[in-house]
Amino acid sequence: MKTGAMRAEKPESGTYDWVEIERSLDARGYAVLPRVLRPGQCAQLAALYARDNGFRSRIVMARHNFGRGEYKYFAYPLPSLLQRLRHALYPYLAPVANRWNEQLGIDTQYPADLDAFLDQCHRAGQTRPTPLILEYGPGDYNCLHQDLYGEHVFPLQVAMLLSRPGIDFEGGEFVMTQSASNGQRAEVIPLEQGDAVLFTVNQRPAANRRGGTRRVAMRHGVSAVRSGKRHTVGLIFHDSR
Questions:
Q1: The CATH homologous superfamily of the domain defined by 7-236
Q2: What is this structure's pTM?
Q3: Closest CA to 85 of 47, 45, 121
Q4: Domain named Fe2OG dioxygenase: which ranges (predicted)?
Q5: Whole-angstrom Cα distance, residue 191 to residue 73?
Q6: Burial of 15 per CB tally in 10 Å (0-12, 13-18, 19+)
Q7: How many angstroms separate the CA atoms of 202 and 153, rounded?
Q8: pLDDT in tens, 148-206
Q9: Quick check: 232 and 134 in contact, CB under 8 A?
Q10: Are 162 and 38 within 8 A, CB to CB?
């Protein structure tokens, strides 16, 4: 599916301007999609965290120096809502990923269809699903990081906020940093319940002063939660070993 002067149907309702989304990704390395999920859908997904079934593993961040808090990787089959979202968003992001790779001089090109890309992952031994749900309590945070899981890495991913800022929790802002030859920058990205942020997993291209292309390294994390409980779903498009 090609990007261009079009408006795409939201995964759940309404429309998004994918031309503007692409501009935001190019300029800042991220774009916000408001109200991807309805409040009831957010509550249903957040409630899954307390269950034992439906997940392949649980990670306590402090044990791995990832920060504080925990998260669980979903097992296949994914919850139907996340399955739909993963397949609905990928076709709009693949052309951006392919163009970025061309600009960065990277030979990899991604199929237009998510199933074809996952088949590449699986043939390379990357068979474990990567969508996850995160839970943060008071004092919890996520260190700045990049989500790189194997040979086949899709350069964009999605985080969706399930909790209500200012009601369910305080603090816990989504943070992105970028590092390039001209310096470093950090940005706090405000999200409301049900909003999704599309963002760069590793690096993105940017124009340099000579008219060429430079690499901008991106990292993301979550600031400390001051009170309450914060749940987020992460949609990563490549599977892992």
A1: q2cbj1_9rhob like domain (2.60.120.620)
A2: 0.91
A3: 45
A4: 127-240
A5: 22
A6: exposed
A7: 9
A8: 766 899 999 999 999 999 999 999 999 999 986 667 889 999 999 999 999 998 899 98
A9: yes
A10: no
